[in-house]
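worker-03 picked up job from queue 'complexes'. Input manifest follows; two sequence lines, order preserved.
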Amino acid sequence: MAHMLEERGLPTTVLALVEAQVKKTRPPRAVMVPFMLGRPLGEPNDAAFQRRVLLQALRLLERADGPVLLEHFPDDNPSWFDRPGWEPSVTLPTPGAQSHAADWERALRAELGAVLPGWERFKARFGRTTVGLAGQPPEAWPGFAASFLDGALPTVPPHDTPALALRFLADDLKALYGEAVQADGGPPSARQIDQWFWRRTVAGQLLIALRGVALTSENNALKTVGGRFFVPVPYLPG
Amino acid sequence: MARTEDIPEPTRTAAANIPCPTFDTTPFVTGPALAQRRVAIVSSAALIRRGDVPFPFGSGEYRAVPGSWRADEILMSHVSINFDRAGFQRDINVVFPIDRLRELAADGVIGSVADTHFTMMGSTDPVAMVESADGIASALLADRCDAVVLAPV
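worker-03 finished. Artifact:
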């Protein structure tokens, strides 16, 4: 994209997270940043850190000795590392066995009841939420998601297909839990949030179960989307 | 760089082996001093406004992100599940540094901030993005932008 915009007359500078791509594409200007994927500015809620990152990229625009101008940003972002001793402030109910869709629905509804207060605190603290892709409110999620376990293929606007409706419900579920568990105190690392969600919550286990259903579905879209876009590889069942 | 050992598979292998276009030449457009530049952001995070239809899978389309949108209206609809969302949840600027640009403009470090920014969905074949590049460039040039910060996720 940098090449294409520059060819059309626009000076560009890239915050590059993946060195291999920069070395192949050789954009006109790039700062290679040592941050995790998904955080090109590095550190959330640290304006001074973000400003340093952005300024290093912008300063490349003042140089006339390119192309290609490539620099490294020197520092890791502090929250990359696990927070020692972190424990989630959300206390989850102990779920019963989930053998039927109705069990899953009940367990998720109970768990959401425990997680929602944290989500409300997150919204109050940070003034925002990234929940909103599913097209339906959290109270509708347990029934909608569990119905797929019974072989139903519902959808809901604005999504055209059951596969996308479930995919974006999964995104909202992860976002709501992720936000709830970041509501209080210093933030856990991204890895700590993921490990908590995928290994300790009914929601994570339900998404893993839904992936299994999707993989055996005759609905090809659900099979593809569920297989690839519900559960990150590190948390797939053994 | 995102440290290779910390990128989970299969993203690690995909990132290392991703097919990238190669270019015979590298264009290089210069401009005035930074303090006179008008700066826009182009994000690969498939940002949408709450209530909009998410980016379709594999889409090479682009969409506008007006500067008037509030942070609590902006969602991320990127298809990939293999990059972090937790930072974006707490602070939109870690992906879309709109407040940082405004501060730099207020401080006189840059000239001004574009009225409208743009977003596409990364992990998409660059060939599918050629038309998007045409559209983004036309709009930014019409807005008198002369600097673009590309912030892939």
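worker-03 released lock.
Chain A touches chain B through 85 residues (CB under 8 Å).
DSSP finds nine helices and three strands in chain A.
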